[in-house]
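Margin note from the TA: students keep mixing up input and output lines. Inputs are the sequences; the output is the structure of the whole complex. Example:
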Amino acid sequence: MIDRRRFIAATAAASVFSAARKAAALGAGGALRFGLTAVVVREHKRSFNQLAAYLSLRLGRPVSFVHRRSYDDIMGMLARGELDAAWICGYPYVQPRYPEYLALLVAPVYLGAPLYRSLLIVPKDSPARRMADLRGKVFAFSDPNSNSGYLVPRGAVADAGFDPDQFFRLTFFTYSHAETVLAVARGMADGGAVDSYVYDVMQKYEPDTVSGTQVIARSPTYGFPPIVARQDLDPEVRDRLRAALVGMKTDPEAAPILHLLTLDGFAEVSPALYQPIRALAQRAQVPALTPAKEQP
Amino acid sequence: MKPAWPRHWSLMVKLPLTITLMVFAAALIMGLVVIERDGKRQSARLEQQTLALARAVAAAGQEGLLSRDVWALYRTLDQLVDHAASEGGDAAVIDAMFLDPSGIVLAHTNPTDNPIGLPLPIGDDAARQSLAHALSAVSAHLVPVDIAPAGVIAAVVPIRVDESSVGLLLLRSSTRMMEAQLRVDALLVLAFALGLAFVTSAMGSVISRRMVSPLRDLSLGLGAVTRGEHGPVPLGEALDRDEIGQLTEQFNLMVDELAKNKRLEQDLANAERLAGLGRFAAGLAHEVNNPLGGMKNCVAMLARRPDDVDLVRKYVPLLDSGLNRIAATLQSLLAELRGESTLHACEMGCLGGLEGMVRAAIGESAVTLEWAVTPQDLSGVAIRCSCPQVNQIVLNLTRNALTALAGAGWLRVATRREGQEIVLEVADNGPGIDASAQRQLFEPFYTTSRQGSGLGLWITYNLIQRMGGRISVDSAPGQGARFTVRLPLVAATLATTELATTGGTERAA
């Protein structure tokens, strides 16, 4: 089913590619459309309203945030030119695109570095202490295109010597790290994998849900989900957006927003930061990394 | 009459108690019927709500079921069930679940106890069979079976796409909230019934007080009448013109009438007493007259021969005896006239002087008198009487006998002692008295003769009663009549010498 969804998304992306360029060019003078995914706590709307207002001021044009349930949706919209920029995950970023239509803008700086981890969580009173204990159980993934919520736990299963497709009795996608925490807290899933940043933010804003869970394993650090832009976005706009985001760290006006987002700021990073994710994807035995139709 | 609590409960208690109990029972029964009906209605409403909610949840979950998006299914259950609960409906949802066609849990509101990806953990075979039946169902329905134990309503909504089952929704809600509400209603009804009973008991006691107190007065009045107190009985005015009021009024009239009759009787008795005294006076005159003739002769002889000492010695004691007798007769008459009717013990010796009076009454007629009064038998015994009254009794009875004899026959007057009684008999061989006349003999104004007042025997009867004695008659037509008077003896401590002396047997011819 996931394959099919991905296939449809990729096909759609390919067929509308050239039309999207034109649409983007036409929309250049309008609002800057910014896509959001499960990497942030979407429910935490106030911080994004303030961020939108701040960026609008810095860019001199309105900025609107667009929420979609899955990475696929956002990636498809980026491919079709329906979005100008998006906050995506490292895994979709490292997936090959032909031709490349994304440009890396910045990465959030969290706890002093543009890095985060994947946390393995179980219900509060669960006896499980490691991934091997969850064999034959129900596991909640966030999104099939998530690094911390999908690749990392699958990699952990593979590293423990099991087949990630057979290890769990049943798995499901919540399409949101926050909902993964909820699914585990409610006992719907016996385990789940979440973004450490989202988990920390939730601890601040939804302590009741978080207290229903416990963290039993932490992954090594990976590059923080990056903010990308369409490659054909006006370079000037792209530069101003990057400058505005990077400048927030030193702008006192941006401090309250960063505080709400629980981030230190944004920094320019090298695409090499996300290379470990590509390696992980191979270990985790995820399906083909390349869109079916556009394999070379 | 005495309030014997609690063996006999007054109407004042019974009446309001009965009313109260009836009102309480009626209110209780009506209230319970209303609750019962309401309970059924609420139960039906709860079933409808449960089914409607189940249909809504099933519709919302169809997409998730098709794509096996278990998290979406869970969110659907979670949100709709939460929503239903926050709406404050009666349908307190216990749980809800999506199952696939083989009975595997896809989502459950309580995922901890009902893990997804496994068959629903249900108890016995019966429940499993019910579930199998539910899984094969085509249309939404309620399951009143093992999946839904008492107090639980379970709704099953099969989810079908293109005529094949893709799963089902099972939603169970509790009737506990509804039942709690019904219990509260039942308590309210009970409180209402108790309140109503309290009010009606207060009203009932007021009403019964109004109704029963005249009855109690009547009862007291009747008791007084029974004891012979014919004086005015304090009776409350009749409050209403209802039956009890009429009864009270009639009773008052009756008491008035009785009092009037009593007065009339007393008047008649007085009149007869005076008439009797008149007759007695006539007899007395005769009694006085008897010695007077001899005394006058004595006085005339003494006047002619004042110096004859023998004559003086012979006649002075005779004069003294005659005068004493007249004095005694007059004294008793005065006592009677002064109304000194108090009874005291008297010797029967006072009967001794009557013979002359009876003989005087017989006069020249052909009636033979047998005077069997034997003062010897009677000496030393006493009865409760006054001599004039005993004399009156004997005179009345002999007068009746002489009337009956109509101038010819025999008359017998006899006394004797029988144990602690003095028996006084007056018998004649007249025409006798028939049975029906005997029954009325002692009633006032009953008479067979034209001259009689019809009071003689009645007065005689009353006198005997006052002495604590009794009178009987033994007669039949053609067999003559015998009146027997029995007077009880009293201790003879009050015997007076005066009576003893006057009772001496000096007889005038």
